[in-house]
Amino acid sequence: MSHSPVPDPAQYARFRELQRLAYSAAEAVARGLEPGVTEREAAARLRHHLVERGVQDWFHAPFAWFGGRTAFGGFKVPLQFFPTRGRLEEGMPFILDCAPVRSGYVADIGYSGCLGANRIHDRLMDDLAAYREPIVEQVRAGRRLSDIYRAADALISEQGYDNRHQVYPGRVIAHQVGLARFRLPRFVAAGSGIRQDRKVTR
User: Fold this and answer.
1) What are 52-78's pLDDT values in tens digits?
2) What are the angstrom distances between the C-alpha of 132 and each of 33, 112, 143, 152?
């Protein structure tokens, strides 16, 4: 694995293009969600939308979580993160998560929404605004990721929330992506849904 501090402008544009595609796919699927759709159906819609637009592979399989599962409460093993037959209801929050690969470029996004009105979800989205600029500023300032992680944890506690990235696979808030070169046949690892044969250059 090789490292470079900043991709060249052409590569950066390709990463941004794929990231925009991932978000537009999540937005399109979110607009079509209705009561009764299952997590599995939502994840399949996300996959279909992206494959139709040239996505060739996945850094991890598309996910969908509804209602209380958006907080990963009680999750003990990685398999519990996979989409279920649980159905969306009016007022339920949801998260759509995808990590497409196209021509070696990787994006990984999460998109949150709610079917109808939900005051708790609205408050969460408002409170998230306090994280966005400080995290970007700290990354640009070259702070260690562990320091950024602790600063985010402190703000989470100050706002009265529980830290959910502690139970997410890898315990990450975010992670780097790079150019992916897969050397082995496609294999999605049980539990994480992450390709185990990847070679990533940054």
Assistant:
1) 999 989 988 999 999 999 999 888 888
2) 27, 15, 15, 10
- The alpha carbons of the chain give a radius of gyration, in whole angstroms, of 17
Strands 198-201 and 179-182, by their bridges, are antiparallel
pTM of the model: 0.82
Distance between CA 30 and CA 112 in Å, rounded? 9
- Residue type, position 195, single letter: R
Confidence at residue 164, expressed as pLDDT on a 0 to 100 scale = 83
Per-residue pLDDT band at 162 (split at 50, 70, 90): confident
**The residue count for the chain:** 202
The Cα-based distances of 36 to 8, 12, 88, 91, 142 in angstroms read 45, 39, 5, 12, 46
How far is CA 9 from each of CA 6, 12, 14, 31, 54, rounded to the nearest angstrom? 9, 5, 9, 33, 22
- Sequential DSSP letters for 95-128: EEEEEEEETTEE--EEEEEESS--HHHHHHHHHH
CA distances for 6 relative to 17, 32, 47, 178, 182, angstroms: 17, 37, 30, 11, 22
